[in-house]
Amino acid sequence: MTAYAIFIRDKLTDPAEFEAYSNGVGETFKGHPAKILSAYGKQEKLEGIEPDGVVIVEFPDIAAARAWYDSPAYQTVAKHRWKAASYNVVIVEGV
Length: 95
Description:
By secondary structure, the chain is α+β, with helices and mostly antiparallel strands. It is built from three helices and four strands; from the N terminus they run E-H-E-E-H-H-E.
């Protein structure tokens, strides 16, 4: 069943580290069945605290999403994201 990796950025604190992340993350998708559905696009808050940015990536299933997230390539690049901002990240199964 389709799964979605959702990255919700609360606050950017280090633009240089985020640039390093942005420059490297695209390569981490090679060999993974991923489709980026949204990446820091315009948003309209309806309830709660407005996030600084949102990314949604579609995968065929949770296992595929985890395989990408846990891959050495992504984990190496993710270190820049962790230094750059605070995030909430979930993988959610579709219906």
